[in-house]
Amino acid sequence: MATTSTQAEEVPQSTHSFSVKGKRAIVTGAGSGINLAFASLLLSKGCSVLFADLALRSEAQKVVDQYAKSEPRAVFQKTDVRVWRELEHMFDVADKEFGGVDIVCPGAGIFEPHWSNFWHPPGSKESKDAPDSDRYATMDINVTHPIRTTQLAIYRFLNPIDSGDKVNPTNPKRVIITSSIAGQTSNLLTPLYVAGKHAMNGFIRCFADLDARIGLRVNGVAPGIIKTPLWTEHPEKLSFLDEDKDAWVMPEQVAEAMVRCLEEADLGGGTILEIGAKATRKVAQLNDPGPSGAGFTATNIADEYAKVYSWLGAEAWSAAK
């Protein structure tokens, strides 16, 4: 029998304090953008961080070098988040380098690039999703990776290398997931991305009970339009924006909200914090009014729908199976 729940609003939350100082974190996608800002903020607050990414941009390499031999410490582990054994290995590296982990952020994500895009079917010229692969890279990165990483985090929290470090209400642990305002809205141009963020919102809320019960908090952030290379280095995405009308949210604002989700007692398990250019608020599970205000608009996006209609008339779709 199917049931519905408003757990995120009703479950009493743990009042046990949590500080990132002295903790150990894994952050996927820390080579750039929001996750680099988050990893940098954690380090500045005394938390060691494993940077798990395919590569580091120069600004991320500078941070890793700065903290390579200090305490707290930064370590880079090359990781393809689509590969489960590499996700497992990053936990092994954290055990080896830090003696365990307290905070896990499966933050790596992509904004439905042309090479893994609903409107460029597997087998078309733009797509790198092979017709016989049975998968979309966008969904592997944005959905399967945070789900599998959360599973692995829970296992490690329950079975740490030091038995005295097991998660419990007086020894809390944290998972912080990056969702998006796309988890509440829709957009013809990026249906896989939208589907993935709707999935993440539901996934985050499912764990609300665990905060008070066993000290494991799973929260999420839902940023608006963030000024990161995901946007600024992709002209096809920048065309969505009118910079005279639309405002950016800065990655440092998102990072601050992520730390709040880890530390603040009233942001209990299952909470999703929405971050705009000028305001941050909790997203309600039911009857939420939706995002509004600066940092949430892409004025030209509806005009860009013409591209979809042109793609639908292209040979890739007439030949699609």
TrEMBL record:
What family does the database annotate? Answer: Belongs to the short-chain dehydrogenases/reductases (SDR) family.
Can you name one GO molecular function term for this protein? oxidoreductase activity
Which keywords does this Swiss-Prot/TrEMBL entry list?
Answer: NADP, Oxidoreductase
Q: Which organism is it from?
A: Sporormia fimetaria CBS 119925
A GO term from the CC aspect: cytoplasm
Q: Which InterPro entries match?
A: NAD(P)-bd_dom_sf, Sc_DH/Rdtase_CS, SDR_fam
Record-given protein name: NAD(P)-binding protein
Provide the organism lineage as a comma list: Eukaryota, Fungi, Dikarya, Ascomycota, Pezizomycotina
UniProt-listed PANTHER family: 15-HYDROXYPROSTAGLANDIN DEHYDROGENASE [NAD(+)]
Q: What Pfam families does its record include?
A: adh_short
Q: Which Gene3D superfamilies match?
A: NAD(P)-binding Rossmann-like Domain
